[in-house]
């Protein structure tokens, strides 16, 4: 009797699991996301991440405005894929927060997207990107992001969601973006408070994307490097 | 056609009728933005331009961003111009200006507005809430009496905004009154500009305050708002601004960062440049802790302020962090403790919405009166303030409260310090220099007109303490180098040549315009420098808008050629103008546009009552040599000696010659094409600038300058 004759259609057998996961492994290695038979979506890891120094940011929001400019050709806070929050009256370091997309390994925003608009892009190191042509404006990804503030943006004029693509789609940047390329916010920041890494930060640590970029020059300016 | 760099409409607030309307920005496009547009709007909407006090209901106050606001133009994204007839000046409160930084201008642009024109007077206190294109007049009865920080806090509470960071997105559709159109969402707090007690009581030293430490102080615009019963304007915007050439804008911004600014990898902490320093906050007291960050206006290249872990001093900078220092120093020897009192004193003036600059020389004068026995309990100038506690934080608050609420001596000082001196029978103090209010009733700024000519001359030919720092980095850099034994990065001759390269059109390659020696101080050359500064600033600095502390960048030791970004083909003002607006305007073309704005301003002053006969400095500047009262014991400036050789020279120890300065005024008026007898603009000059409408109005008022006079 054939093995599959004794199983419920669609059920996962050992053989089927090994077949699917090996195929998925090959596909993921090639950079494509794969939907397993059990509905599990295997998402290849992004090859790039933004790191921030929350104590170094001067709150100029140049990164925000430049991000929107590089992507859309307009100056805007709302269309920026990086969001800088500040409270003028709060005590340092809680007066500033730099909200960047974590390019999550598990990427809940990708998982929840009903149209596949939000997906890793193998042409740009698997960075999670939203294809505006496929986005139906359901805002599921915006709602599903587990971080506060959500790291996805809502373009209310076009009724589509936006997210950080590490500058893969930046017609106004003048350089190739994405992992291995230029990230506008990293390059434009006057304080060098944002950096890029190809190494995935610890996904379980809420603070693993926060780094200390303050160096001797910072100390010479009289500010703490701790 | 897209109006690149602009939102497309200007908000006109009629407080009397509580009515908001929109004006098409395109109508005012020739004036650039900021100050230029504001002057044109004032010209059109102020029906009585003879008013001499900004508290007159006819006054029109404009709050104007520029095309660079809300963009990444370096140190240009967050500035905002404020204009209108001022308060407390002497003998006339001129049509004047101030500027304020922070987030307000960017947020206003993102809300879809290129500026706000404030007219009339509300019958009861109001605040105005702007959310994108929607505008509401709100009852401010409960806000009246709150300080500037508490006001902002209360407005955020009313808007159901959570303070702090790591907060979620705020859905701007949460209130049905905003209508059906999707208002978007934001992570940002609304930007609020407000007055405190000083403004509510309509005092001459009332400022507009935004966030913790952004202020429009000089001009007394807090009193203007107070007179209009306007407590605050709050704005939140989720829109965007189209720029003409985003790639060029990004590229030029990166040029400024990577070519003109000191690098973090090979830091030069003593760069001679205005634009290209690493963040070097201009706090003038000892920071209480290294646990702090530099903080900046939107789009800034290098923040000049700080936020601290200690819970005080956030965002105060420059003079407000040292207004009390000389008095604290007598009581407190510990630098950290003195720094704490300094910064807490800064917080006090921020909260009262008080322009601390009047304390710069004014508090020394008050102390002089106390020591002389003229002021105090039971004295001729009665005061119950605890003057024996001068130097304590308690006294700082008591004094600022009195001056903000028209109590004690504040009752007299509220309408102007020079006016109070006359009332108190102390006019001689303007002759002795005990009261150093140098020009138009405003205090000397620390750049004494007897030494730094372009500052003094520009102030008296304009409307107030000019507060335009184009050149005074020469004094601060050279004097600091001499004082602290630091290397002079540029020799005097080299420096003036570099600066003169940038002074197109009037003074290009004429380094002698910077020669402030006794032999040259009343020359045509110095007049050309003053013209250049006022024209440059009226457009490039105050209309586009660029930060006064960062632009122009004449010389820059980060660059092998030593030439600064100003006017350069890769990072100059005109490069950013073209990238943002799409207009191919040359650097000189911008200066020429500034000349037009300067002429429009002079036309307004003329209608208000300006005549060359009243264009005088305070008498002490003519009667006494400049000898004391400065942080530095010398005032170093490039001058030529008898052989024409350049050297840095101390300019202290001299006074102004009244007759020679009168001759200089004639030279200046001649160069401007104004009537030398009156200082009024002439028809020929105005019509050559396509300003016939101004000439016609002056003629109708009988105040058009005579040709060839």
Could you explain how this protein is built, in words?
The complex is a heterodimer of chains A (226) and B (709). Chain A is an alpha+beta fold. Chain A folds into 2 domains: 1-42; 47-220, Alpha-Beta Plaits. Chain A has helices at 14-30, 62-72, 108-112, 140-144, 184-188, 216-220; strands at residues 34-35, 41-42, 49-52, 74-76, 83-86, 96-99, 118-121, 127-130, 152-155, 160-163, 194-197. The longest helix of chain A has 17 residues, at 14-30. Chain B has 3 domains: 9-236, Aldehyde Ferredoxin Oxidoreductase,  A, domain 1 (4-Layer Sandwich); 264-442, Aldehyde Ferredoxin Oxidoreductase Protein, subunit A, domain 2 (Orthogonal Bundle), CATH 1.10.569; 448-594 and 619-672, no CATH class. Chain B is built from 23 helices and 23 strands. Strand 4 of chain A pairs antiparallel with strand 15 (240-242) of chain B, so a sheet runs across the interface.
Report the CATH topology name of the largest domain in chain A. Alpha-Beta Plaits
Assign an overall shape of chain A: globular
What's the arrangement of strands in the largest beta sheet of chain B? 2-1-6-3-4-5
The H-and-E topology of chain A, N to C, reads as HEEEHEEEHEEHEEHEH
């Amino acid at each position: 009797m054939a093995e599959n004759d004794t199983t419920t259609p669609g059920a996962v057998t050992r053989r089927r699991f090994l077949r699917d996961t090996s195929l998925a492994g090959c596909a993921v290695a090639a950079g494509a996301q794969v939907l397993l038979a059990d509905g599990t979506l295997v998402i290849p890891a992004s090859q790039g991440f933004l790191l921030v120094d929350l104590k170094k940011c001067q709150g100029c929001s140049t990164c925000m405005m430049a991000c929107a400019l590089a992507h859309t050709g307009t100056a805007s806070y709302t269309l920026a894929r990086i969001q800088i929050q500040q409270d003028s009256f709060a005590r340092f370091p809680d007066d500033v927060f730099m909200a960047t997309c974590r390019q999550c390994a598990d990427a809940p925003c990708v998982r929840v997207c009903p149209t596949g608009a939000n997906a890793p892009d193998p042409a740009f190191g698997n960075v999670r990107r939203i294809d505006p042509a496929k986005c139906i404006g359901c805002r599921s990804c915006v709602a599903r992001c587990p971080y506060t503030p959500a790291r996805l943006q809502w373009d209310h004029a076009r009724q589509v969601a936006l997210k950080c693509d590490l500058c893969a789609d930046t017609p106004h940047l003048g350089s190739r973006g994405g992992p291995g390329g230029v990230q506008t916010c990293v390059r434009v920041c006057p304080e060098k408070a944002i950096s890029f890494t190809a190494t995935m930060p610890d996904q379980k640590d809420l603070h693993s994307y926060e780094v200390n970029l303050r160096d001797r020059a910072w100390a010479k300016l009289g500010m703490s490097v701790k | 056609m897209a109006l690149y760099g602009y939102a497309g409409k200007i908000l006109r607030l009629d407080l009397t009728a509580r009515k908001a309307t929109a004006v098409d920005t395109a109508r005012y496009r020739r004036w650039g933005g900021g100050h230029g547009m504001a002057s044109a709007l004032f010209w059109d909407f102020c029906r009585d331009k003879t008013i001499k006090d900004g508290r007159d209901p006819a006054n029109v106050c404009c709050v104007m961003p520029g095309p660079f606001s809300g963009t990444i133009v370096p140190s240009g994204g967050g500035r905002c111009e404020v204009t209108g007839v001022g308060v407390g000046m002497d003998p006339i409160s001129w049509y004047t200006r101030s500027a304020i930084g922070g987030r307000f201008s960017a947020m206003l642009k993102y809300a879809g507005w290129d500026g706000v024109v404030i007219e009339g007077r509300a019958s009861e206190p109001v605040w105005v809430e702007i959310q994108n294109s929607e505008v509401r007049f709100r009852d401010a009865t409960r806000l009246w009496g709150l300080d500037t920080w508490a006001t902002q806090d209360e407005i955020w509470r009313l808007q159901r905004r959570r303070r702090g960071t790591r907060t979620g997105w705020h859905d701007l559709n949460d209130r049905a009154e905003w209508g059906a159109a999707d208002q978007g969402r934001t992570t940002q707090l609304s930007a609020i500009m407000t007055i405190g007690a000083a403004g509510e009581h309509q005092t001459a030293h009332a400022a507009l305050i935004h966030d913790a430490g952004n202020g429009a102080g000089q001009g007394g615009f807090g009193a203007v708002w107070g007179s209009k019963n306007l407590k605050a304007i709050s704005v939140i915007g989720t829109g965007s601004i189209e720029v003409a050439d985003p790639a060029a804008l990004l590229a030029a911004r990166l040029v400024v960062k990577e070519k003109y600014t000191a690098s973090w990898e090979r830091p030069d902490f003593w760069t001679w440049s205005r634009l290209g320093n690493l963040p070097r906050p201009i706090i003038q007291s000892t920071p209480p802790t290294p646990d702090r960050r530099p903080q900046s206006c939107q789009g800034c290249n290098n923040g000049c302020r700080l936020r601290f872990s200690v819970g005080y001093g956030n965002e105060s900078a420059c003079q407000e962090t040292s207004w009390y220092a000389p008095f604290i120093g007598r009581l407190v020897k510990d630098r950290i403790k003195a720094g704490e009192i300094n910064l807490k004193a800064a917080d006090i003036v921020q909260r009262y919405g008080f322009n601390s600059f009047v304390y710069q020389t004014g508090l020394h004068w008050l102390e002089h009166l106390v020591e002389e026995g003229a002021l105090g309990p039971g004295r001729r100038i009665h005061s119950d303030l605890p003057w024996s506690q001068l130097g304590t934080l308690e006294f700082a608050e008591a004094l600022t409260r009195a001056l903000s609420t028209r109590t004690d001596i504040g009752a007299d000082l509220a309408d102007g310090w020079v006016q109070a001196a006359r009332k108190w029978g102390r006019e001689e103090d303007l002759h002795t220099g005990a009261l150093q209010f140098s020009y138009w009733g405003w205090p000397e700024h620390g750049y004494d007109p007897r030494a730094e000519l372009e500052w003094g001359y520009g102030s008296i030919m304009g409307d107030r303490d000019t507060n335009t720092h184009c050149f005074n980095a020469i004094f601060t850099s050279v004097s600091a180098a001499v004082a602290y034994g630091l290397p002079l990065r540029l020799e005097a001759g080299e420096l003036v040549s570099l600066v003169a390269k940038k002074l197109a059109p009037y003074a290009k390659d004429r380094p002698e315009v910077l020669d402030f020696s006794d032999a040259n101080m009343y020359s045509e050359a110095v007049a050309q420098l003053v013209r250049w500064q006022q024209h440059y600033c009226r457009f490039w600095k105050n209309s586009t808008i660029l930060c006064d502390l960062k632009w122009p960048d004449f010389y820059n030791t980060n660059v092998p050629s030593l030439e600064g970004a100003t006017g350069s083909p890769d990072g100059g003002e005109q490069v950013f103008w073209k990238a943002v607006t799409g207009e191919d305007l040359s650097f000189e073309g911008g200066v020429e546009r500034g000349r037009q704005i300067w002429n429009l301003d002079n036309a307004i002053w003329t209608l208000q009552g300006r005549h060359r006969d009243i264009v005088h400095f305070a008498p002490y500047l003519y009667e006494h040599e400049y000898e004391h009262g400065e942080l530095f014991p010398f005032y170093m400036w490039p001058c030529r000696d008898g052989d024409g050789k350049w050297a840095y020279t101390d300019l202290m120890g001299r006074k102004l010659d009244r007759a020679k300065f009168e001759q200089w005024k004639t030279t200046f008026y001649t160069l401007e094409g104004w009537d030398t007898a009156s200082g009024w603009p002439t028809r020929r000059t105005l019509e050559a600038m396509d300003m016939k409408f101004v000439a016609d109005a002056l003629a109708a008022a009988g105040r058009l300058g005579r040709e060839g006079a």
